[in-house]
Write a structure and sequence with these properties.
87 residues; mainly beta; 8 strands; Thrombin, subunit H
Length: 87
């Protein structure tokens, strides 16, 4: 499982099927989770990394075919705010 600490101290953990958000390193239970969005489920394989992209949290989603998707995430709510394809 990959994890990343955001600039606001939120811990974000990436598994193959979901991104989980924790208030801090001592938190046992996540306060929000983002599963693979429905619009990508037919092409998505798994989440494989977390990055900071232009000061915004993004989860990288591996897909079938010759591309992947970067999903921008609001770290406070755990919701998808945007996305883009990349190779």
């Amino acid at each position: 499982m990959k994890d990343l600490t955001t600039q606001t101290g939120i811990i974000v953990k990436c598994s193959k099927t979901a991104i989980e958000f924790f208030q801090n390193a001592q938190s046992v239970d996540f306060f929000s989770a983002l599963e693979i969005p429905k619009e990508f489920q037919d092409i998505a394989v798994e989440f494989y990394d977390l990055i900071m992209e232009n000061d915004h949290l993004a989860a990288l989603l591996g897909c079938r075919g010759n591309y992947d998707i970067a999903i921008q995430i609001d770290e406070v709510t755990g919701t998808m705010t945007g996305w883009h394809w990349f190779k």
